[in-house]
Amino acid sequence: MYYNIISQTIDILKKLNKKIVFTNGCFDLFHVGHLKLLKESKKYGDILIVGINSDKSVKNIKSNNRPIINENQRLATISAIMYVDIVYLFDEDTPIKLIEIIKPDVLVKGSDWNNSNNISGYNFIKSYGGDIKFVELLDGISTTNIIMKIKQKENSL
Asked: Strand, helix or coil at 88?
């Protein structure tokens, strides 16, 4: 049922000739690098849709110690960002189901994903003429680095 609602929403947006942009991530411990990704992504179209990994998905792809921030709080945070129009949660390890339903005009990833072989939905998006864009990362800014800094500070206390 959840995917039916997404499909209906996308049908309406496409009938209105809206250019749809999609990006995704865990967005655990939201930081300025995440904000840059969302801000830059919005520049590529009319509607920015963000896929967020569920808690289950984050545990599968990161570790049992993650996420730090639960999915409801992460959804609330990303939903409050002015550049974001729609947010969807997904349970799978990759957002391929969302990408296939949304069929975005543009998929945006961080520059750490520059190898197209690793981008979920790359071939699908290219098959209908969609575009892939990359946003340059901010040096040293990542959730993993933030967690490591916190652990170092704890150890020095």
From this structure: strand
Find the DSSP H helices in 16-115.
Answer: 32-42, 55-61, 71-79, 96-102
Rounded alpha-carbon distances, angstroms, from residue 98 to 2, 22, 69, 148: 11, 9, 22, 32
* Total-model pTM: 0.91
CATH superfamily of 2-7+17-156: HUPs (3.40.50.620)
Sign of the torsion formed by the C-alpha atoms of 50, 93, 110 and 68: positive
Summarised one tens digit per residue, pLDDT across range 54-66 is 999 999 998 888 8
Domain ranges (residues) in the chain: 2-7+17-156
- State mean pLDDT over 47-54: 97
Q: For residue 95, is the peptide bond before it cis, meaning its omega torsion is within 30 degrees of 0?
A: no
Neighbours of 138 (CB within 10 A): 15
